[in-house]
Amino acid sequence: MYRLLYDHALVHTDPEAAHHAAVEAIALAGRTEPVRRALKGTVGHLGGPVRNPRLLAFPREIPGVLGLCAGMDKNAEAVLGMDALGFGFIEVGTVTAHPQPGNPRPRLWRHPDMRALRNQMGFNNDGAAVVARRLRELRRSSAGRAVVVGVNLGKTRTTPLDGAVEDYRASTHEVARWADYLVVNVSSPNTPGLRELQQVDALRPIVRAVRDEARRVSGREVPVFVKLAPDLEAGDISAVAAMVGEEDLAGVVAVNTTIAHDLGPGGLSGPPLHDRAREVVRLLRRDLGTRPVLIASGGITDAASGQALLDAGADLLQAYTAFVYEGPLWPGRVNRDLARASAVGSAGARGGG
Length: 353
Known about the structure:
The chain has 353 residues and is α/β, with parallel strands linked by helices. It has one domain (2-345): Aldolase class I (TIM Barrel). Helix content is 43%, strand content 14%.
């Protein structure tokens, strides 16, 4: 029913207005306890926690392998609602040290023939201090404390590249104590110069500042990840993987949107990205080795496409675009399907042993 509604009505609405309306509706559902409980017990019911020893890096158990990408709940307004719909973990943001409006509109486009989205949002968000207040309020409830929440950190547009270290440190100072993990986003194509920070010499001092500040303000080791673009060359991917090991980071999130298209400005997400995402995940797992966690996104439309990324070496998955096209029943359904596939695989392995 949702897909029919989307293809015949919603697709004709303004994409950004539809995005805001959806987030507001999901936020309202999350704030309304009877609705939230009903959703979580039905459409958001998951198949059991993820069993993976690498995930011991996280401070709490992860209930489902598929989580929500950054970019949907930019300002941490709908965490409980997203959890109720069946995402195993929620990544909010991208958050910057200072509030900013993002790029001029239009800046979000649908490509329904490919089930894809293209965006040039530019890290529009309320700023780290406001997001931190919302996360602090979230953690005051037992339901809010139970959700696995990551925070995706970006550079403020007006901050020059040589000020990036302190900009990321300032964001970390605000949000780290409320986050289960942090992601250093240096891979969005929509902030001028940002992708230059993927070079190891520029990236290393940033991740050190984030890790050290997170430890200082939270009193614990907060897992720190780096988010990479799909457009990096293999040598650059290997260099970042080596740095992750050298700096003892939690892992990598792969991949962000791609600029390898001729559709117009901005980064493309959705099924056109899947093959490249799988290749990047395969390269990263080869170079990372066995310990770091690898969170994969890019073109996941169902359990089979998610499983392809897991088979390539990912530990967890994230999605956004398919959620827009497939609707509120989609995340819980995919998580349940993946949990069943994992159970069958484990049973088969035991039987074969």
